[in-house]
DNA sequence: CGCGTCTTTGAGCTGCCTCAATTCCGGTGG
DNA sequence: CCACCGGAATTGAGGCAGCTCAAAGACGCG
């Protein structure tokens, strides 16, 4: 396994060795040489909760892979009403190919670490490595599927169903096994009540009331406001109307 | 392959000559030879309003280009609540690459004509023509942008703003010049009130009341329930909060 | 002319929002 | 160790936007 392929430049960069993006993310499209080339231009970046990563209608010069943490993508109306239109978990790709301006805000929801590289490096590599575009297409289709699923939640579900859907979404993203397994799932919520409200198209008060109701009904347990335990995910799914 | 066509095999197929998808759609990626190859497997299909083109969780064997008309993409909850998650206009591409099952319903909203071809033909060509994947990525990114825009509408806008946003969306899709021009725009609504309600996450009564309000306020004119005239698109945009 | 479908309009209800007060909790300093 | 502070979350009371239910028009078609 660790047979030291060889001592040449085809060694995988240290930064990439443990990176999820190399397996499930876009970097999986690259061979060791290409990985080395890209890693020379890439840098790791850490952001604190609330820190803006990409501003709306701002020029975008960097793309990133999310290495850990959660990034919220949001849109705002002129009068301040806000809607979160997507959450990015590791190893999602952050950036909009073929456009120089972002149409949305990207803000760290939790402490986040990113692997960033200049947009130009990707633009160049896309031309040489068709597999890279293939990965980007797959990632984009996944995000489109998720966006459309969420549109159903936003447009047609009740507040109770929305909150249950949100707790379920986070559970399945943090622990992909969760949906099949019958055992309990536990996690720390990556979002504040205000964020959850912005994701669900509700107010914080309504979110709070529905969480309380789920807790009193024994569907979830809550500790320290943030830590959620779901004893029976099937029960939560029924509440979410999935 | 028959000899006669081989002689002139670089001629563009008749079906493709006037097709928008050759310019703005995915077929723009293909050279005349490839166009001929694909067109041998493709067929034109006409559908009437209400006709189901792709069923939810149905096996998908065909992809299509929309040549004319409007297709609605929708999702339904187990209890019948429905949400339209996208509208496809010419020359949009209809189909979900890399998945054999559809996660949504596609239904003709108006009379629709399609250029259909087997999924397998595309799957094969994608491997030979990287540019095809490039086009698919662009189309998917466009749809993702639109889906996210609409999430803001669904989650955070009032009923009045939603209806105005819808009328604006149709105006700009049917006449791409509409948004810049100051002149009046007119079109036939491709959707019934029930469809509009399902697109906006409202009831038909609320849609009807808001349309009446816009009409009484002089923002739009309505003839025969379906024909809409927008004297001043800027005025509509203000109502939509764009 | 009568029937079915789509749309409009009206009247009352309710789920979520708004506004306001209180509690919880982590951090900080005495 | 406790008192205090500020931000986040909860809880309560009342209002209203949009839903539900019901009825009546508008229009196309046999």
From TrEMBL, chains A, B:
GO cellular component terms, semicolon-separated: cytosol
HTH crp-type domain span: 157-234
Keyword terms: DNA-binding, Transcription, Transcription regulation
Any one GO molecular-function label of the UniProt entry: DNA-binding transcription factor activity
InterPro entries assigned: cNMP-bd_dom, cNMP-bd_dom_sf, Env_Response_Regulators, HTH_CRP, RmlC-like_jellyroll, Tscrpt_reg_HTH_Crp-type_CS, WH-like_DNA-bd_sf, WH_DNA-bd_sf
SMART domains: cNMP, HTH_CRP
Origin superkingdom: Bacteria
Entry protein name: Transcriptional regulator
Taxonomic placement: Bacteria, Pseudomonadati, Pseudomonadota, Alphaproteobacteria, Hyphomicrobiales
């Amino acid at each position: 396994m660790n047979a030291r392929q060889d001592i040449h430049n085809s060694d995988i960069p240290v930064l990439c060795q443990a990176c999820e993006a190399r397996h499930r993310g876009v970097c999986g499209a690259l061979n060791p040489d290409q990985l080395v080339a890209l890693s020379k231009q890439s840098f790791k970046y850490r952001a604190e909760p609330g820190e803006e990563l990409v501003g709306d209608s701002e020029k975008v010069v960097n793309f990133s892979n999310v290495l850990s943490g959660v990034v919220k993508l949001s849109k705002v109306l002129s009068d301040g009403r806000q809607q979160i239109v997507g959450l990015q978990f590791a190893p999602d790709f952050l950036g909009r190919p073929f456009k120089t301006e972002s149409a949305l805000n990207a803000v760290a929801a939790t402490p986040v670490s990113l692997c960033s590289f200049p947009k130009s490096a990707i633009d160049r590599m896309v031309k040489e490595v068709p597999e890279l575009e293939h990965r980007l297409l797959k990632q984009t289709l996944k995000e489109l599927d998720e966006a459309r699923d969420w549109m159903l939640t936003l447009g047609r579900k009740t507040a109770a169903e929305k909150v249950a859907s949100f707790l379920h979404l986070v559970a399945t993203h943090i622990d992909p096994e969760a949906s099949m397994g019958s055992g309990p799932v536990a996690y720390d919520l990556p979002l504040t009540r205000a964020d959850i409200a912005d994701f669900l198209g509700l107010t914080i008060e309504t979110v709070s009331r529905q969480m309380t109701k789920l807790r009193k009904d024994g569907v979830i347990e809550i500790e320290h406001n943030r830590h959620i335990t779901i004893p029976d995910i099937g029960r939560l799914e029924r509440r979410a109307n999935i």
